[in-house]
Amino acid sequence: MRYALATFAMIGLVASTLLGPAPAAEAASLRIDGDDRFETSVLASKQLPAGRTVFLASGTAFPDALAAAPVAAAEGAHLLLVRSDSVPDSVTAQIRSLAPSEVVLVGSEASLSAGVAAEAARAAAPGARITRIGGTDRVDTSMRLLDRMRAMGSAVTDVWVASGFDFPDALAAGAVAAREGHALILTTGASTAFTQQIGARLGGVQRFHIPGSTSSVSSDVQSMLAGTGRTVDRFPGSDRYETAVKINQAFTRSGSGGQLVLTSGTDFPDGLVGAVYAGIRGEALYLTDPNCASSGSVASEQRRIAATGITVLGGLSTVSAAAAALQPCASLSASPAQLLDRINDERTNAGLRPLATDGCLSTMASGWARAMAAGGMTGAAHNPSLTAEARACSLRGWGENVGRTWGSGADTGKITAAWMASEGHRNNILRSSFTHIGIGVERGSNGYWYYVLDFGTR
Fold first, then answer.
1. Exposed, middle or buried, 192 (CB in 10 Å: 0-12/13-18/19+)?
2. Which of 271, 358, 361, 383 has the fewest Cβ atoms nearer than 10 Å?
């Protein structure tokens, strides 16, 4: 006779939203984390020496702020992020506190409206000059920023040419440029206009540097730059994180000390002010996966440059405690096999035969664990398609346990103990009629680990 345990399981597993271990200890020496991207830029500004110039750039799009960073750093200025149509209160307060003699709006009115200029003028009153540096597009704006850098007395010999389509490579390059007195311009391809813009600005330039692979900045752009007779270097990494490492290996001296500045490589807002922050302080900026270190390269760099600590830009959802501690992703992953061993230990202790893994159940369990993690669920919940998927797997009976813990690593012991302490969960684990199991374990960007046990009878 066919029977289904899904209803029983779902009733018995309401308590499967489980709080696990306490959050991992904060490894950062300093975390600069405002209530939003705008306040984060203010908090970063407060860590820098007073300056007489303030640059304002969009906090909702990345290009203008990236290109502005080396220019602002060369002037010892502050870079603050604003909305396209207004200046947040926290930024207004910081402008008043700095009492600048000049406020520079980066971008055309399509990026920062006339209303932003008016608000900035009121905040900086009395007597502050309001300047706008805005081109016809992001590339043209970056060229005009190079012009500003030269006009203010910088002898620009090195120019970074970064992708205008994406931000990660330009973040690390911008920090180096800000520290070394280099300029950074953006490119969207070796167009006639771009070639002419470069040609008009070759005076004094000795070297071009390209961050990233040809998928970031095309070989056509590299060939065009080489055609100017200047040296062209490219710094490609296997991914954005390794590109940042390669750039720093070339330009950050071993034993240079200072803080290692860490920001997300998947979300741009908090990192936008990082190039100015790191550049003015003479520190190195690296990128990280929000959840963990994708490799041991940044940890190796921390040792190589003899960093005195880590400064994190952004909150825990942007750079987790594990990422701030440079913990490798591999060390945080929980193997479903570990959880299977614990479940089968409980069954063996109860005199029951162990459960065998089942491909169809494993697909169900891992799929639902990924869905919970991707959705950032605040509580574990049952798969609403459990019954349909179980029937598609041709099971005669089925059940499900779900759970959630918080921490820098998955804790299969903790979650198993919690399930065994709950009658509904325990009944599923020790149900003698179950013969097979599928297990899913996934970590969400919110720091929670999600666990799914899908049981079945064949």
1. exposed
2. 358
